[in-house]
Design a protein that fits this description.
With 434 residues, the chain is mainly alpha-helical. The protein has a domain of 185 residues: Glycosyltransferase (Alpha/alpha barrel), CATH 1.50.10.10. The protein contains 17 helices and 9 strands. A hairpin with a 5-residue loop joins β6 and β7. α1 packs parallel to α17 and α8 packs antiparallel against α9. The longest helix has 21 residues. Its EC number is 3.2.1.4. Belongs to the glycosyl hydrolase 9 (cellulase E) family.
């Protein structure tokens, strides 16, 4: 990974923002999707780490790479650094990270410029990761949990959407279209699980109506946490520990019915080849995140000997696993195009992905600098990318299962961290249960 030292001079305080993840095929560090990616990596380890075998160590390292950065971004009380780089200037260039000369402006939220959404997701990531490290590194785990508590308090005290505070920096790239309320509940849910403190459960019960806990229950991703909140909290209810959270289990059941083909409650499309499809860009982010919830909830249901009733139909844990497996198989090549949407996997996969580092020649092959606009010849080239980004999952096909293997079609050919992160748990489970 290429590291760039980003130091911001603010009231004589130097802030080191090295590390972290770029969100996708560009050279920007967007804090909102990065935090969600870290949360999902942590959830994957929590629920499926025991069956990851030798890959568990890599998964834990991936979590820590995210949390090390988020600790830096939240090191100053009442401040969260939420973005490194100017998206407009970056997106106007096609250049390698090593050649980057675009603006590296740093953006932050504070009490006068709130961002409960990105701060809430950051708190969730830190809390979830504290569970990952609870026995592996107790000291680091305590640091993560204590920081999560502080960041959540800041997010809840100074409420507002970060896209209102930083509109020109974050929109339309990661503009909060869904509101910040779900991130506050999401953070409280993870703090409940990580801290085992009653105050967070009480916060959820007290605020579930105010913060619209039942809204858009068939959505889950970097911008909308409602389905994830319901599934995560349902585990407590199904284990008989938190009857006060029963409404979340009811919502989780309704979420499951919204994905079940052949029911009147279906809220998603399926392509002719069987891929889940929802409106918006980069469809595979919906596929992996919703499939993760199907699998996680199926495990919770199994342990509670519970099935979901969808009108005249029943959704058993086995059926939910089957639905999730079908999506994973589609991603890996069982689809009408016979195309694996994971780069480097299988005999046929995307060759011209929308990713700067993959599409431009490496510094070893081409040591001379490639300027901002000089990279355009590689962007528009019909040639395959010279560097295979093994393991990256792209946005995927359209509703007819067709796929344009072309860099300019970024919604279909750009990989993102938040597509891959939920897939970690899914692949671990299905590799262990072929």
């Amino acid at each position: 990974m290429v590291q760039h030292r980003v130091v911001v001079l603010l009231m004589n305080i130097q802030v080191d923002l090295r590390g972290g993840y770029y969100d996708a095929g560009d050279n920007i560090k967007f804090g909102f999707p990065m935090a969600f990616t870290t949360t999902m990596l942590a959830w994957s380890v929590i629920d499926f780490g025991r069956i990851m075998g030798p890959e568990l160590n890599n998964a834990v390292k991936a979590v820590k790479w995210g949390t090390d950065y988020l600790l830096k971004a939240t090191a100053t009380d009442g401040v969260v650094y939420v973005q490194v780089g100017d998206a407009i200037s970056d997106h106007n260039c096609w250049e390698r990270p090593e050649d980057m000369d675009t603006l590296r402006t740093v953006y932050k939220i504070d009490k006068n410029h709130p961002g409960s959404d990105v701060a809430g997701e950051t708190a969730a990531a830190l809390a979830a990761a504290s569970i990952v490290f609870r026995t592996r590194d107790p000291r680091y785990s305590r640091i993560l949990l204590n920081r999560a508590v502080k960041v959540f308090r800041f997010a809840d005290t100074y409420r507002g959407a970060y896209s209102d505070s930083l509109f020109h920096a974050v929109c339309p790239f990661y503009c909060d279209n869904n509101g910040y309320q779900d991130e506050l509940l999401w953070a409280a849910a993870w703090l409940t699980k990580a801290s085992k403190r009653r105050q967070y459960r009480e916060y959820i019960v007290r605020n579930q109506v105010i913060l619209k806990a039942g809204d858009t229950i068939d959505e889950f991703g970097w911008d909308n946490k409602h389905a994830g909140i319901n599934v995560l909290l349902s585990k407590e209810v199904l284990m008989g520990k938190s009857p006060s959270l029963k409404s979340f289990q009811n919502n989780a059941d309704t979420f499951i019915c919204s994905l079940l083909p052949g029911t009147s409650q279906l809220q998603v499309e399926y392509s002719p080849g069987g891929l889940i499809f929802k409106a918006g860009g980069s469809n595979m982010q919906h596929v992996t995140s919703l499939s993760f919830l199907l699998l996680a909830y199926s495990n919770y249901l199994s342990h509670a000997n519970h099935v979901v009733r969808c009108g005249s139909k029943s959704a058993s844990p086995a059926l939910l696993k089957s639905l999730a497996r079908r999506q994973v198989n589609y991603i890996l090549g069982d689809n009408p195009m016979k195309m694996s949407y994971m780069v480097g996997y299988g005999p046929r996969y995307p060759q011209r992905i929308h990713h700067r580092g993959s599409s431009l020649p490496s510094v070893r092959v081409h040591p001379a600098r490639i300027g901002c606009k000089a990279g355009s010849q590689y962007f528009f080239s019909p040639d395959p990318n010279p560097n295979v980004l093994v393991g990256a999952v792209v946005g995927g096909p359209n509703t007819t299962d067709a796929f344009p293997d072309s860099r300019p079609f970024f919604q279909e050919t750009e990989p993102t961290t938040y597509i891959n992160a939920p897939l970690v748990g899914l692949l671990a489970y299905f590799a262990a249960h072929p």
